[in-house]
Amino acid sequence: MRAPSLSSDPASRLPAVDRVLRHANTLPLIERHGRLPATEAVRAALADLRAAKAVADEAGVAALAGRRLAAEMAPSQRRVFNLTGTVLHTNLGRAVLAREALEASDSVLGAPSNLEYVVEKGARGERDDHVRGWLRKLTGAEDAVIVNNNAAAVVLVLNTLALGKEVPVSRGELIEIGGAFRMPDIMARAGCALVEIGTTNRTHLRDYEGAIGERTAMLMKVHPSNYAVVGFTNVVPEKEIATLARSKGLPFVNDLGSGQLVDLERWGLPHEPTVREAIEQGADLVTFSGDKLLGGPQCGIVVGKTALVRQLAKNPLKRALRLDKGRLAALEATLRLYADPDRLPEKLPTLRLLTRATADIEALAKRLLPAVSAALANRASVTVEPCRSQIGSGSLPVDRLASVALSLTPVGKVSGGAVDKLAAAFRALPVPVIGRIEDGALKLDLRCLEDESGFIAQLASLQ
Ligand SMILES: *Cc1c(COP(=O)(O)O)cnc(C)c1O
Q1: How far, in Å, from the CA of 258 to the mean position of ligand 1?
Q2: Burial label, 339 (beta-carbon count in 10 A; 0-12, 13-18, 19+)
């Protein structure tokens, strides 16, 4: 045993690493996280103390190391409560998967699977075969190919059919979706030349006709997912573009973006074109996302004419853009749910949240009100207020869904930034609660709150 040093230098009064590692309070850390991470954390804690010219005994250093380890080993990506009012929030991961989809991906991720193997024949197969039949049935298209996301689907189509060639697109459809996806940039990167036609608000069939030349590869329509052009406008009906494309021997491609498989009007939601409609309107290829209104995993789906789809599948880029087995299984399970549309709102979280009755959300708000008010006593007043949710992720940009929010307004000595602090306190909860700030209040739109007891349980941790 070393005698306690009487030196005035605090660093020399810190315990040695191995003494801390042998201390009773360090053993659980080693047990939980492993010897190497625990040793590193102890060293780092000692270095911090030395830098701060502070003193601590073995237990004190162990406590510091424990805090470091907890922060370091905490998962970076974790659950949050999405109370933003945007159901398909890209920053919060878009669609929440159905239980069936989670189970399907789990079962193939934890074991070998027949991903590219035909069990009956004992021969090599194609991964997209697992969903091709479902997509044919649900969209009326001849064939399908699956990639990482819809941006990849658009890149694959352009690169396959229009490399070194021209693609006329209406100026009203040169979209930007969330930062990096800008149609003109994507076209350039896919190796094709964009030919802008028409104007922002009006494009006519003659604009398409005038743009077609020797180097034209295809005609393309891009669904205006996240905005609407209103007023004095003209959009050429898809059927007319399709007829023109056919007469010139060119493929007609429709980037639908969200592209759902059933008409949402059936559940009282606004109409958004379905993939089947796009095919019926004459598109030779339709591209859409798996994790927008479809409610599945992130992926990009291209459906359409077999000859074109085969060309896409043969492009070496397909190999770079292909979907992994877990998401492919989740997609297959999600598509299977569509076989029974009657039970879709009950099974598919995206549709369940979108079709949630306002009265149901209001009842939830009233149940939560006392607990939230109590947790915020003296800090904020809480009221139940009507609000409007949006679908998000470039779906139905203009339409809003009637919903109900808890509106939290700071009270007392209100300084500037009080509402930001309130929002930060909710984000600091064990399962962060993400709301939106509006009119000086923090609004918690309850449309997407399903784990009511989990939400209430953690209010006690509110700082
Ligand atoms: C969302 C969207 C995309 C991009 O799809 P991701 O799945 O996000 O890659 C492309 N085109 C349109 C029209 C869209 O709405």
Answers
A1: 7
A2: exposed
Phi first, then psi: what are they for 269, rounded to 5°?
-95, 160
Which are the contacts of 54, defined by CB distance < 8 A and separation ≥ 6? 10
Give the CA dihedral 15, 17, 19, 20, nearest 10 degrees.
90
Judged against a pLDDT cut of 80, whether residue 1 lies above it is answered with no
Cα–Cα distance, 343 to 358 (Å, whole number): 20
Angle (CA) 342-257-303 rounded to 5° is 75
Around Cβ 52, how many Cβ atoms within 10 Å?
A: 10
- Provide the whole-model pTM: 0.93
Q: Which atom of ligand 1 is nearest to the CA of 289?
A: 7
Digit-coded pLDDT (tens) for 109-156: 999 999 999 999 999 999 999 999 999 999 999 999 999 999 999 999
144, 351, 410, 459 from 447: Cα distances, Å: 34, 12, 23, 19
| Ligand 1 centroid – CA 444 distance (Å) | 27
- Of all protein residues, the one whose alpha carbon is nearest to atom 6 of ligand 1 is 150
Checking DSSP bridges between strand 117-118 and strand 123-124, what pairing results, if any?
Answer: antiparallel
| 226 pLDDT more than 70 | no
DSSP letter, residue 157: H
Q: How far apart are CA 58 and CA 62, in angstroms?
A: 6
Ligand 1 centroid from CA 344, angstroms: 23
* CB distance 152 to 321 below 8 Å: yes
The CA–CA distances, whole Å, from 451 to 127, 367, 368, 392 equal 35, 13, 12, 21
CA of 177 to the centre of ligand 1 (A): 7
C-alpha neighbours within 13 Å on the C-beta side of residue 171:
13
Q: Of 90, 223, 225, 301, which is best to mutate to test ligand 1, by the most ligand atoms within 8 angstroms of its C-beta?
A: 225
CA of 27 to the centre of ligand 1 (A): 50
Please check whether residue 141 is in contact with residue 149, taking contact to mean a CB–CB distance below 8 angstroms: no
pLDDT on residue 395? 60
Ligand 1: residues with CB < 6 A are: 149-151, 154, 177, 181, 222-223, 225, 255, 257-258, 289, 300, 394
Beta-bridge partners for 304: 143, 285
pLDDT of residue 289: 96
